[in-house]
Amino acid sequence: MQARSPTYDRILEAASAHFAERGYDGSSLTHIASAVGIRKPSLYAHFANKNALYMEVFKQALQQECAMVARCFDEEGGVATPGAGYADSLIARHASNEPLHFLLRTSYTPPAELRVAIDEGHERYLDLLHDTFCAKLRACVQAANLDDAAISQYGQAYVGIIDSLQVKLVYTDREQAAARWAVMQRLLADALEHATSKE
Questions:
Q1: Beta carbons of 2 and 46 less than 8 angstroms apart
Q2: Is residue 113 part of a domain?
Q3: How many separate domains does the chain show?
Q4: Has the keyword Magnesium been applied to this entry (predicted)?
Q5: Which domain CATH number covers 63?
Q6: Of the candidates 86, 89, 111, which has an alpha carbon nearest to the alpha carbon of residue 24?
Q7: CA-CA distance, 140 to 80, in Å (whole number)?
Q8: Is pLDDT of 196 > 90?
Q9: 199 falls in which pLDDT band (50, 70, 90)?
Q10: What is the pLDDT of residues 40-82, one digit of tens each?
Q11: Which of 67, 142, 154, 184 has its CA at 20 to 30 Å from residue 191's CA atom?
Q12: Could you tell me what percentage of the chain is helix, strand and coil, using 3-state DSSP and rounding each to the nearest 5?
């Protein structure tokens, strides 16, 4: 990979927007180069081909989203439903955040030739969600009577909720995702309250 430069960063920014809007098959390196203000051969000085550019955009978007997971959970404090801040953020950011829009579109409809690498990256993100949720739940005083297996089960439930919200964002709209989250958040909160109140 080439060292980062202003042109390199502009290519990634233009490619992220272009791929998010048109997907892999509908995208054109010529169009991306034009959006950056360079010729297509100059783009090849930074990226070997379309696949290399696409994967670099994916890796950058994935890195940004993983950082957002950490930030949202860190800022939550002692809330009744761990992970609520991240779910709210996901819904709020999707329409206006091109890297997130690209990441979700790519994760759920990856190009066939890049599917394995993209699936691996998406699974790492889901594992991070699970582990971060579990750590937050484990730190709650109310969860002291939950064993590791129960905490992991709640972590899997949380990942399933986030996955469901992302599908709604990709295939429907923010309003439907928000409505689904309102119901699922209530169910998760009730389940956690019931489990942690047992003597």
A1: yes
A2: yes
A3: 1
A4: no
A5: 1.10.357.10
A6: 111
A7: 9
A8: no
A9: very low
A10: 999 999 999 999 999 999 999 999 999 999 999 999 877 678 9
A11: 67
A12: 80, 0, 20
